[in-house]
Design goal:
globular, 4-stranded antiparallel sheet, about 0% helix, mainly beta
Length: about 425
């Protein structure tokens, strides 16, 4: 399986690409509060910690929000405020997002969960939970049963650590990755016939996890071989006993990681140090065009991480809207970018946004789950802005007309306060880029 080829070279068995020329002078969207149309009820949410570096992946933490592939359900580990001098009691919570109004269902059991517990929603409304008990990983399915919480034990895997991968696009399967220095084990922990099943043993240390198709058959992982060397994304065929195929190789020595993929358009979001240092780039699955590293996605002192791609853009990867989480010293906010537009629109997130969580509708509306003291379960809607050229004299960073270099520090947008649905304006206020 290939994604692209070295510009001016020949395509090989692995996906390869030339960093290509940078695109100087790309205009950027001025920072400003985005108008979010909120819906629903909500809960207190904790945002994941800021990555230590722009290329570091945010680690799962209490408050991390996981969505099904279609965005119908979400799940997270949350807690009520702790009493003075006490500890917070963590419990799973499921969000239903495909109805007329979102709502959350708490799924507590007889004792609190540990902060490192992971949860993942399924398409039937149940929630998979992974707990670590000594040197074992325990798995169960949780579901509401009237005022109580039902629990169906699935079994256990003996290993020191495991990370749940994003829920499969089929809606019924969840996989777990247990990574070692010499090999990594891929487990089907929900959706199997007899509890957790070992699917594949992959040589090397693996991380990441991105689905490349709608059937949940081809999974991309980032792998470092047992003898060391660079990290390269590989494709794992789950219907062929975990057969591994090279997927990304921009240069032989570069670390090439796959962050996101859209099966409809083939758009790939890539993190690589092929340009000389870690940069965010994009390519197209199966294309011979080189990977591009847009200048507008290169932000000094900020971590920029894609988290959602607009679906349904068949054979039109350049038109897909991409949502990015932007982390800075002052917090997290939202970026929206299209490959064809070459502009990074920076928009304020709703108060209490579960940073890095969200999904696109096919018509270009970004859904952001949020929770705060006044709204226990809500979804803010952001319409993807257009990519019209900015007025003359506004090509500097974030609307700065002083000619400041675009690598200068950025002041994050003011967080917009969600308006309850009953008080939301009937018409969206007109605004210009």
């Amino acid at each position: 399986m290939t994604a692209c080829a070295i510009e001016g070279g020949t395509a090989g068995a692995a996906t390869t690409a030339d960093p290509g020329p940078e695109e100087p002078g790309e205009p950027e969207e001025p920072v400003g509060a985005a108008e979010a149309v909120p819906t629903g009820r909500a809960a207190e949410a904790g945002a994941p910690e800021r990555p230590a570096a722009p290329w570091a992946e945010p680690l799962p933490a209490p408050g991390t929000f996981t969505l099904t592939a279609d965005g119908a359900y979400g799940a997270r580990l949350t807690a009520a405020p702790a009493p003075p001098g006490g500890q917070r009691a963590w419990y799973p919570e499921r969000w239903t997002l495909d109805g007329p109004e979102p709502y959350a269902v708490p799924l507590p059991l007889h004792q609190p969960e540990e902060p490192d517990t992971q949860v993942a929603p399924l398409a039937d409304g149940r929630v998979l939970i992974r707990r670590r008990v000594a040197d074992r990983q325990m798995f169960s399915l949780l579901y509401p049963t009237g005022p109580a919480t039902g629990e169906l034990a699935l079994g256990a895997v003996e290993c020191d650590g495991m990370t749940l991968l994003p829920p499969s696009p089929d809606g019924s399967s969840v996989y777990g990755l247990s990574a070692g220095d010499h090999s990594s084990l891929l487990w089907l922990v929900a959706g199997g016939a007899f509890g957790p099943e070992l699917v594949a043993e992959i040589p090397g240390h693996c991380s990441g996890g991105v689905w490349l198709d709608r059937a949940g058959r081809i999974l991309a992982l980032d792998r470092r071989l047992p003898g060391g060397g660079p990290v390269k994304a590989v494709a794992v065929d789950l219907e062929r006993n975990g057969e591994v195929t090279p997927l990304l190789q921009i240069t032989p020595e570069s670390d090439d990681r796959l962050l996101l993929a859209d099966p409809d358009s083939g758009l790939l979001l890539i993190r690589s140090n092929a340009p000389g240092h870690d940069r965010l780039g994009w390519g197209v699955l199966g294309s011979c065009l080189p990977v591009r590293f847009p200048e507008c996605l290169r932000q000094a002192d900020l971590a920029v991480t894609p988290f959602a791609v607009q679906p349904g853009q068949m054979l039109m990867p350049e038109s897909c809207a991409v949502a990015l989480r932007i982390d800075g010293p002052a917090g997290s906010w939202v970026g929206i970018w299209r490959p064809q537009g070459r502009r990074l629109h920076q928009l304020a997130a709703p108060e209490g946004w579960s940073a890095g969580a969200g999904y696109w509708s096919r018509d270009g509306v970004l859904h952001l789950p949020y929770a705060n003291a006044s709204t226990p379960c809500g979804v803010a809607l952001l319409h993807a802005p257009g990519d019209e050229e900015p007025p003359p004299g506004t090509a500097g960073t974030d609307g700065d007309t002083s000619g400041t270099d675009r690598s200068a520090a950025i002041t994050p947008p003011v967080v917009c306060k969600p308006v309850p649905l009953g008080q939301a304006p009937l018409h969206r206020a007109a605004s210009s880029d």
